[in-house]
Design brief:
alpha/beta, 3 domains, nine-stranded mixed β-sheet, two-stranded antiparallel sheet, about 10% strand
Length: about 375
């Protein structure tokens, strides 16, 4: 019986999306090599993956041993039980805005409505927001929905939750991009909102079912999807070292128009928003009417996008040293001492797992703490 290549390619994409050692660029390389016979990647030996496909040894080992770490039948069953779908990158339903990104997710788990076709605006901000910030996010989202625009956010506490709620209050379309599997509700307090978005909006995740929330790595990685799905990004309230500044950096690097709330009230007191506006990376916006005026003027937003340049967060907020986890601290010290290094070399020197080290370094890269060079090695940003 002939293979259904579309099904087999979909299945292979789902498997690879579950492997921590395989990222978007490795996936893109494998697809370029194999094309429509991509499904064969799951049948190759380690030697074939290294010699014929050109994978590094750690990735070849992960792919060849996928049956030991991925219960594909369980994943497929979970997709059916949840009433969701996994949209692989080669599928026509994959959002074009994301597909254009260098780090486009291998695939997307989606539940609820289809992706919005019109203009979408990402609203992000701190979890520990002020009442004024929460009110502003809710009002902005409500007004955007009333004017036919969808909102994108991350279903976190604070600004994210207020943005989702404001959109739903106006019967608009809101998209929640999760830093965990679709079946995991995080934070638990957002259980009701999670359910509302599942039935009236869209839940999205690049992580497999059962993947728990990890605020240090998963959330930083998922932020590129929030900004990637949007036509413009608004930071409502954020400290200088907040997760929303990672979203701001993604917006800058993706050439998405970036706006930040700035005024004399408590919302404008956000140090992160002030830094974005002061640096010229973000347009200051104060009221919902002003927001609509800016979003309706393509020339203003295009000028803002064209004027943005790639910028490590450490330069943006002027911090000498970012807040680091114990593992990140070790990586920082190693790179500070040894300079540009491959992830595998760092892992061996510190006696930690290659996947664990690569995940940590990728998260640090997304936060602007380290940078990846053309050679594939990593070094401290700004050095």
């Amino acid at each position: 019986m002939a293979l259904d290549h579309d099904w087999e390619n979909w299945k292979a994409s789902l498997v690879l999306s579950c492997l921590p050692d395989i990222g978007p660029r490795a996936f893109a390389h494998m697809w370029d090599v194999l094309g429509e016979e991509f499904w064969r990647i799951l049948t190759f030996s380690v030697d074939e993956l290294v010699s014929a496909v050109g994978l590094r040894l750690n990735r070849a080992l992960a792919v060849s041993g996928w049956r030991e770490s991925v219960d594909i039948d369980r994943q497929i069953s979970a997709i059916g039980s949840f009433g969701s779908e996994f949209i692989a990158q080669f599928n026509g339903a994959y959002p074009p805005k994301l597909k254009a990104l260098r780090d486009a997710p291998i695939g997307l788990h989606c539940a609820g409505r289809s992706f919005p076709e019109g203009k979408s605006v990402a609203i992000v901000g701190t979890r520990k927001c002020s009442f004024a910030g929460e009110r502003t996010a809710h009002e902005f989202a409500k007004v955007l929905a009333e004017n036919g625009m969808a909102t994108i956010s991350g279903l976190a506490e604070g600004i994210d939750a207020a943005a989702h709620a404001g959109t739903l209050a106006a019967n608009g379309h809101t998209v929640a991009v999760l830093g965990c599997g679709l079946d995991v509700v995080y934070p638990p307090d957002n259980l009701a909102l999670h359910g509302e978005i599942r039935s009236r909006g869209t839940l999205v995740s690049e992580f497999p079912f059962g993947r728990r929330a990890d605020r240090r790595s998963n959330f930083a990685i998922r932020n590129r999807i929030i900004t990637g799905l949007a036509d413009a990004v608004i930071v409502v309230e954020s400290p200088e070292n907040g997760g929303s500044m990672i979203s701001a950096r993604w917006a800058i690097n993706q050439r998405k128009p970036l706006l930040a709330v700035g005024s004399g009230d408590d919302v404008g007191g956000s140090a992160g928003c002030r830094a974005l506006i002061r640096s010229g990376r973000a347009i200051a916006v104060r009221t919902a009417d002003e927001l609509l005026e800016l979003l309706s003027d393509p020339s203003v937003l295009q000028l803002a996008a064209n004027g943005q340049i790639d910028l490590p967060l450490a330069e943006l907020n002027g911090a000498e040293r970012p807040t680091l986890s114990p593992l990140e601290e070790k990586i920082w010290l190693f790179l500070e001492k040894n300079g540009s290094s491959a992830a595998d070399d760092v892992a061996v020197a510190m006696a930690i797992g290659g996947a664990q080290c690569a995940t940590a370094m990728q998260a640090m890269c997304l936060r602007g703490i380290v940078k990846r060079e053309l050679s594939g090695a990593f070094s401290l940003a700004g050095r």
